[in-house]
Amino acid sequence: MDYGQTPKKSLGQHWLHDELSLEAMADIADIQAGDTVLEIGPGLGTLTKELLSRGAGVVAVEFDQELASALPSRVPHKDLQVIEQDILSFDFAQLPRGYKVAANIPYYLTSNLLRVLCESANPFDTAALLIQKEVAERIAAKPGAMSLLSVSVQFYCEVQLSVVVPAELFTPPPKVDSQILGLRYRTTPLFPDVNTKVFFRLVKAGFSERRKKLRSSLSGGLHISKPDAEALLQEASIDPSLRAQALSVEDWYRLYNAYLTR
């Protein structure tokens, strides 16, 4: 399929041309008439067209100058606003409350983008992110396979693994399959009155040396003695010989409360 535009490898551009996958993304993000949708990296506008066809207004943020300039003529629509900008420096305050997100994003951007989206003072309502399948599975992981990324996203959002999109449905085909990750921002925080700076300092300390047991990784990450780290874990009713990936978000919250009372 000739799109008249050469994908830039440096920007991780892989364009999706499968209508069923595009429809699935709009479904997962729960796009309704009247919604405002932030589309990140619209590329050639295939997803943009699907979002607009549902009666949504689209704010398309595109880093690539050529693509940003071409999009209004490629997808002419009164409810499309194109902004040429790096999404990591985008001001989310300019969007109306309850906006939704849809994006086919390159691997290198995933972690930073999720952090920016989740920590925004004006958070999204729902999101459908098309990302590398392995990364989607890591974000949706259960205790035993948790990571700093999965704890961070699950702290802020309800997470849903959706449709797998095979590599051959992209132009050019990436080396691995992708998957749609559905996110719903928690309208009520998972835990009350959490100082997120302290909470994630603990989580980062726990994952600072993944192969070590928690008593050791917390000792190094928090700059406390191993006996103090062990006592802290015991106060939270957590086995000090576990590794960070074994803990649930609820376990980290118990550890956080124990840390605050020391």
Low-pLDDT runs of 5+ residues are 7-12
Structural class: alpha/beta
Shape: elongated
Q: Mind telling me the CATH class of the largest domain? A: Alpha Beta
What is the CA-based Rg, rounded?
Answer: 20 Å
Beta fraction: 15-25%
Biggest sheet layout:
7 strands, mixed
List strands and helices in order, with pairings:
Blueprint: E1 15-16, H1 19-28, E2 36-40, H2 46-53, E3 57-62, H3 65-74, E4 80-84, E5 100-104, H4 110-119, E6 126-132, H5 133-139, H6 148-156, E7 157-165, E8 170-171, E9 178-185, H7 196-206, H8 214-222, H9 226-235, H10 249-260
Parallel strand pairs: 2-3, 2-5, 3-4, 5-6
Antiparallel strand pairs: 1-8, 6-9, 7-9
Helix pairs in contact: 1-2, 4-6, 7-8, 7-10, 8-9
Which key phrases capture this entry?
single chain, 262 residues, alpha/beta, Rossmann fold, Helicase, Ruva Protein, domain 3, 2 domains, seven-stranded mixed β-sheet, two-stranded antiparallel ribbon, 10 helices
